[in-house]
Request: fold
Amino acid sequence: MKDEHVPNPNLTWALQSYVMDSGRLLLVELDDQGRIGTANLAFRSRFAGFSRVHGKPLACFLRHESGDHLGIEPGLAYRTPVAHVLKGVLGGEAYLFHAYPIDQGTLLIGELANVVESDIVERMGHLAMEMSRLVRDLRKTNHKLALANELNQSLARTDPLTELANRRYFMERLNTSIAHALARDHRLSLLMIDLDHFKRVNDRFGHAGGDAMLVAFARLLKSQVRAADLPGRFGGEEFVLYMLDADLRAATEAAERLRTQLAGLRLLDADFCVTASVGVTELSAGETAETLLIRADDLLYRAKTEGRNRVIAEACGT
Reply:
């Protein structure tokens, strides 16, 4: 027979897995009127013969040693719970319950207390420590899950080699930024960058050398952009960068700095340099990410055909 379950957000995973399924510990959740909401199988089998108890007053099953009035105090949130010794209405057996505060009610966790008073106190301490350990373990697990989720999200939007935005994430951000720029009448410029004759790098230094060159350029790219800009890797040796609140002139100056610094970089050999061709354009009214990328790519192609190692910049319609 399954437990009655009236969901309450305050019942943590620790309580659900450790207490609800326990054959020894008794769990009962009360509302602010002392009526039962959730009760586990151990409680219902002992006091109600497995019958439903939802909505019934706890006083139907338990009473205080001093009289019928239960007088349960739940204590304070995040503090040591208050302990209560209650007796069964029918059998008169004594039970030790810890009272935990929850939203608009009280959570009671207890067990049979037919032992001497000193053992009751000791058992109270053991139960409190065990529950504290469970809650602590739960917090650690939740923290690890949060870190793992954050890592997975980062991996899903990042190029694994260069740690720049991958193509999919870059396009998501570019579409959003274009929408904001057009709505607020802000400037946005785009750079399409391709490393020249990159096959020569792999042929001479191997793929490890090629990868090292891509990583070095990615670092250079990140070092030259502002926090509002987003650099990305489109694939192979092709990179892209959008710059918010930057007109064509500012973006062209940034492209020239990148081109010059890359040409001066001697990462793999003192006599070997890698250059880049860059196409630069600026967003125009009513334009989409796709048309902006096409224009930047056309300008990059012109830079390639006109001799490479150069920047070609042009606004729409010029």
User: Anything to note?
Assistant: DSSP finds seven helices and eleven strands in the chain. The longest helix spans residues 117-157. Helices lie at 13-20, 41-47, 117-157, 167-184, 198-224, 248-263, 289-305. Confidence is low (pLDDT under 50) at residues 1-11.
